[in-house]
Every structure is written in C-alpha cells, then in structure tokens.
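User: Here's a chain of 247 residues. Predict its fold as tokens.
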Amino acid sequence: MRRNSPLVTALSVALSAVLCLALPNGGLAQQAADRASQPVVVELFTSQGCSSCPPADAVLKNLAQRPDVIALALHVDYWDYIGWKDFFASPSNTDRQKGYAQVNGRRMIYTPQMIVMGQQDVSGNDVMGLAEAISAYQARPRPVALALQRQGGRLTVTVAPQGALPQGPIAIQLVRYTALETVDITRGELAGRQIDYANIVNDFQQVAIWDGQQTTAYTVDYDGAQPAAILVQQGPFGPVLAAAQVE
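Assistant: Prediction complete.
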C-alpha cells in the first residue's frame, strides 16, 4: 500500500530544501548548535478525517527530525462526524486551537493549521511560509532563559528573565507526546490510506505559573516513558517565550 502521495513527497523535499537554503553561508555547525539551543515550536492542528491534512502531517514528520524545531501534532475532534473517528483527537486540542483564534482575532479554525511559537498562523501546506516563519523565529533572541535537569523521576525546570517580558501570567507546561504511529484509515475522506503521524500530543500538564520577575526553579514528576517538551508561554494562548526538548 502506498505510504505517500507525490504531493506529500514533494512538500517534504521542498521543506528540507527551503530550510537548508535559509541558512547563511559559513559557520553552519555553530549556527545549528545555536538554533538547537532555542528551538522553534510548531504546533500542527490536524485530523485523520481531514482530506487535505496528509501533506501537512508529512511535513510535521520531517520537522520532528530537526533538533532546532519542536514539532507537535494536536489532533482535533471536529471532523469525527464524517465517517472516521480520529482516536488521537482530544477536545482540549480543539479548545487550544479556538483559544489561539480568539486571542489573534480570527473567527474561524481550520485544518491543517500550524501555529509557530504561539503567534503566527501558517497553513499546514504552505511550505515556503512555514520555512520563512521558522527562520524568522530562529533569529529572534528569547526573552526567557530555560534550563532543564532530570534526576531519577523528577525534572527540574529553571526559568530566568533575560529581556522585556509581556505583562500577565506565564505558564510553564510539560507536553508529553507519542513519537510515531502508523494508522490504517478504513472510512471517511481518507479511506484506504495508511498514514504516519509524528509527535502526537497526549497531554499538556501545567508545571507552574511564573511571574517572570526572577530566576525560579520548579520540579515536576517525569519518568521518561514518553518523549516530552517544556513550553514557557504567555497566558494560555499567547507567545511561546522559550521551549526545550526534555532529554
């Protein structure tokens, strides 16, 4: 059974090429290390019931291999009525997408939609737009310094202000996800397709609310059974101020 359509393959190849071309000449190893130290968060809102989503799912799978990007797939539940229930979908993912729309003055939500660093809305199939957004956020200094340390089943998260921070609460979140699942879809718009889904978000856990005033350390239980990332985000649906993969 065919895994990828020509469009999916073309989009994935194009994304890799565009991101490589975005790198300035010289010092590539150092640039890669710098960018990995302040990764760009890309959230994809997708669904197994969405006929236009597979190319974006493939792009996210490509991004998930990059150390300078934290790629997260949030499956929504509002396409479940058309014949196939997405068993990765969660109402909380739909609520998160609606929250982003409300904060940014958008009346509609759609799939596939990517939100870059909690701020920029990019169509999931807009490869050039996505590459440009990632490159732009890679070049911006983070206003929060973030450090993680694991010891046994505990994770210590240390945050420190290193620039002007917006007013209001800052949420520190532990995001657990499944690295890869392959799904055979037998009904709905994608019936007969076998699709790989990467970095499927299972849970957003609030570690703490930080006032942003001084260096602070928080601890949270984390047994390493699932891969995870830490997001430091303004309010519930504002800009992502810093992020890191949990090693």
